[in-house]
C-alpha cells in the first residue's frame, strides 16, 4: 500500500510538495476571508474556505468578472471546531483553464448578497487539500469528499484528476480492500479479483488508476464468501469491457462506487498477473460460488468459457467436429486456411478465426467444397452420425482471412459458436510462407475437377494475393570476380534463377561482344544456387576476363525479384536488366541501348524479343479497348520483319526482361508487386506503374533479343493454366478501371 501511495504522489502536479495526507494533519490553514486553491487537473480547481456558502450549483465571479459567467459546485459542512468568525467550511469545484492560474479574488453568489474571498498566493497540493477537509469536517469529511468525487467522476476523467480523487478518498479513510489478481483475456476484457467491504454485486461504476487512459464505465461485479478476508469483507470478481480494459501491469488501483459511496481499492503489492490462457480457469474457480445480477453472471460464464489453449470441439456432445488441412500466413496477418467442419445437423451458427484482440467471421466468406472422405470417417461412429441422414457432403472449406492483432505472437484459433450459445475452440498453428507459395500449395491440393474451384479462385485466392503486402528480396552475399567498376558504363543485371547451366552460354556471348566484354555485369542468383555455383561462375568470369559482381538474394521467386536485388546491390544511375532466358541476336545491342538512352534521359528503352522461328515474342505493350485484356502485345506472333523497319516507338509499358532504365526508378516505384503467381503480369504491372510515374517507355526495333517462354517447374500444364488465369484476374481488377479512364477521359466520373 505504501509503495502504491508513493507512486501516486510523484504523479501529482509540480505544485505537490506538501507532506502526506491523513492523520498527520495539514501544513496549511484556512482563514476567514481567504480561500485556498488546489489544481485538480487542467480544467478544474478545488477551492477550500470558511464561511456559509450555499451548497449545490452556485454562480461565481472571478477577479471582478460579472457574476453569472461561471458556475461552481459547492459542498459545505459544519466545522468540527467552530469559532466566533466561522462556523462552516466549504469546498467548491470551479471550471478553470490554463489562463486562470493568476486568480486573486472570487465571489460566490450575486453581487449584493454574495460572499467575496481572496485567493491564497500559493496553490495547495492535493494532499494538503485532502487533509484540510478531513480535519475541518471531521466525521462529515467522508460525505463531503463523496459529494466532490461524485461531481469529479462525471464527464472526461483524465489521469491527473483521477489521482486527485484517489488522494481525497485515501484521506477520508475511503480505501477499501485490495485487487489481488488481474487477468488479461483474448478479447481485451480485464478480469479483476480481490476483496472489499463495500463492493456491491451487479453493474458497478469504476475507473482504473494507473498508466491507462481513465474512463468511467460500468463493470460487472460478482461477490463470493472469503473466510480469509477481514470481518464483513467479501471476495469479488469483475469484468472490465474492452474499451475500459488496460494492460495488467499498468493498473495501480480501482476507484469504484460502493455500497456507501466512492471507494478506492489499491492493487496489492503481491498481486498476481494471469495471462489470456490462464484467466478462464481463474474465473471458473469462482463462478459456482459467486452471486450477482443474471446478466453479470452470464458475462462471467462466457468469459470462463474463453479459449485457454486447449482443443474443445472434440468434447462437444453434438455431431460437430472440425479439423484443418493447411494454414498458411503471409505478411500483414493475411491467412489462407483450408480444412473441414462436420456439422450435419447445423448446430454451429458462427465460425470465427481469432488471434489476440482480432477476430473475423470465416463462415460468412469461406468457400465450401465436397469432402465425402469426412462423411465416411464418421459413418461408423453412431454418436456422431447425423440424425437427419442428410446427403450433404460439403464439409470442406477454404477461406482467406486477415487478422492484424497487436500481439502477433498470440495463439491462433477457431471459435465455434453453437445454437445454445456455448463455444468450442480449435487451436491452429500457421506456417509462415510467402503469399505466392501459400496460394500455389492450396491450389495444388485441390482436385482440378472440383466444381468449387472457380469460386475458390475468385473469392479466396485472388483476394488473398491482392491484399497481401510484398516482402522485398534481401541481399545475402556479394562477391566481386576481378575488378568491378559500376561507374565505367551502365551495369548489366542478369537474373539467373533457372537451370544450372543456363547462364554459361550467355556469358560466352557477352565475352565475344567487344562492348559487353568491358561492361560491368551483375549476376543475381537465389541463395541456394549461389552456394552451389558462386565459385564456378567466379572462375568462368575470370576466364572470360569479364567484370562480374555475384549477388546472393533471399526471398526471390522469379527473374523480377532477382532484378530488384541486383538494383539494390548498385549505386549507379543507369542499369541494363537482362533475363538469363534471353540472348542477343547480334553484337552491338548494348551500345545502341546506351546511345539511345543518352538522347532520352530518364526513359526506359526495350528491344524487340523474338522466338527462334523469327516470330515476335514481344514488341511493345499497348493499351486496348478490350476490358478483359486491357493491355496487349500488338505484334506478338507476327514475323520479325514486320517490326524491324519501325523507328523508335513510344509504348504503354516497357519489358523489364531486357531494357535500359534509371536504377532509382525501380526502387522509387516500390519494386515489383507481390500479388502475382507468375512473371508475365508481374513485369507488366511494374512497367505500367513506371509509365504512370512520369517515366516514358520506348521500343527500339533495331535491337532484337532471342528467347523462349520458360516452362513452369511445378504443377505441369494444368497448374500453369490456373496460374495464368489467376494472374489475369488480379491484373484486370487492378488495371482495367484505371486504363479505361485513361483511354476514354470522357468516361471519368464527375
Give structural notes.
This protein is of the alpha+beta class and 750 residues long. It has four domains: 154 residues, no CATH class; 131 residues, Immunoglobulin-like (Sandwich), CATH 2.60.40; 155 residues, no CATH class; 170 residues, Alpha-Beta Complex (Spore Coat Polysaccharide Biosynthesis Protein SpsA, Chain A). 27% of the residues lie in helices and 31% in strands. It is built from 18 helices and 36 strands. It has a seven-stranded mixed beta barrel. The chain is elongated and about 115 Å long. The N terminus and C terminus are likely disordered.
- CATH homologous superfamily of the largest domain - what is it? Spore Coat Polysaccharide Biosynthesis Protein SpsA, Chain A
- Helical residue percent band: 25-40%
> What overall geometry do the principal axes of the alpha carbons give?
elongated
What would CATH call the class of the largest domain? Alpha Beta
The DSSP helix count reads 18
Question: What is the count of β-strands?
Answer: 36
Query: How many separate structural domains?
Result: 4
Quick gist of this model?
The protein has 750 residues and is an alpha+beta fold. It is built from 18 helices and 36 strands. Helix 5 packs across helix 6 (294-304).
